[in-house]
Amino acid sequence: MSTSLVSTVRLLIAGVILALAVPALSNAKSVAPDFVELAKRLKPTVVNIRTAKNIKPRQRIQRPQNQPRTPFDNFFDDFFNQFNNQPQQPRREQTLGTGFIISADGYILTNNHVINGADEVMVKLSDGRELKGEIKGADDKLDLALIKISEKEKLPAAELGDSDSLEVGEWVMAIGNPFGLSQTVTAGIVSAKGRVIGSGPYDDFIQTDASINPGNSGGPLFNAAGKVVGINTAIIAGGQGIGFAIPINMAKSIINQLRDTGKVTRGYLGVHIQAVTPDLAKSFNLDADKGALISEVIKDSPADKAGLKAGDIVLEFDGKQIGEFNELPRIVAATPVDKKTKVMVYRDGKRLSLPIVVTRLKDGETGAVANDSKVSEKLGLVVQELNKPLADRLGIKESKALVITEVKPGSLAEDAGISAGSLIVEINGKHPDTLDKFNAVIAKLKKSDVVRLLLKRQDGGMYYVAMKTE
């Protein structure tokens, strides 16, 4: 074999080896970071937070006045005197938590539940110094709070990362104050994203198996590059390896408001929504079970003024696609008040783009829920026409409607989560207000047909359900 041919073969082999090696080496997220170096660099940015709350003494128990004397008078006198003679002194309740410095001039991010109701906040730096903290703002919906400490020297600040780019399986590290053990470092991976745990209206937690315990609350969750991607917030009681962190991007969207005004203003749309199940998607002839299904539009709300209707499926808002239905509240909340934007909905088989002006979030829910009864064997519902005595008893204003008075055990209706007392607003796009109209729709149903109902609960909430006949 000639020298030139040997050289060519060697170059080809080297090229193949390099081609095979590059993908493994280029994926830096799959390589465990140097936790020793990260801990040394990042611990100075993490602080311990100690709060104190003054608890007022209980009021003394007073013996009822002008009460007839009984043979037990002496017993009750002793009972009341026993408690009244106990010392009633104010007491202080203390809590421990974690936070992290986000600016060199002393702003610190933590959880709202760490400082909520505190009369005093003390911040302990990594070098042992303890400084008084001032609560600059708090938001109970996201469970975030901003604290300020005063220090002449510049403080080491943590760099905020991008939680949207975080991937499941990626290495993360937590630093905190679990059980009062300061500057504790734990590591793990991202177990899941977008977790909804029922803690608030904007749940979107990062789940991690990095060890998180009481006292870690408010502390940072770092990625392998040493950037904050989450704020450690919650754990499952009795669970091991299951911790939850607020994505840092959610915090970044409100930090300026907390610093400037002490509170958070959110966008308001004015709709009640629910998930698009596969059956609901099929009933609407939608090719995918994505988006947010509007079950109710609040009168005079931005949604109402924009022309949104119950039965619309929101596919996009402000240029952002809606995959899971609970993404819509978070996107709307983050939309600046009075911003003119567009909402993309699916209606009657078409996609519509509607202009909308988001207003300030307001509290307020609408309220609702029906002579002859009819048992629909296909669905398992007992339906009755509304009359005045029944309407008065249920406390509803509708004068003509149908109400579900019974849901048969083991029926399609029970499996779909339908509850007795709900008003039938719509069935397969029709609005039956009499039993005859309702029965006419039911009679046309065939095996494996999808039935879509819009119902109004007794509390006023409206929701869609879909069932497939058997």
The radius of gyration over CA amounts to 30 Å
Give the class from helix and strand content and strand pairing. alpha+beta
For this structure, the CATH topology of one domain is Thrombin, subunit H
What oligomerization state is this entry in? single chain
CATH superfamily of one domain: Trypsin-like serine proteases
Shape: elongated
Strand neighbour order, sheet with most strands:
5-4-1-2-3-7-6
- CATH architecture field of one domain: Beta Barrel
Question: Could you characterize what this model shows?
Answer:
By secondary structure, the chain is of the alpha+beta class. Among the domains are: 163-261, Thrombin, subunit H, CATH 2.40.10.10; 267-360, Roll (Pdz3 Domain); 373-468, Roll (Pdz3 Domain), CATH 2.30.42.10. It has twelve helices and 27 strands. A seven-stranded antiparallel beta sheet has the order 5-4-1-2-3-7-6. Strands 8-9-10-13-12-11 form a six-stranded antiparallel beta barrel. The protein is elongated. The relative contact order is 0.08.
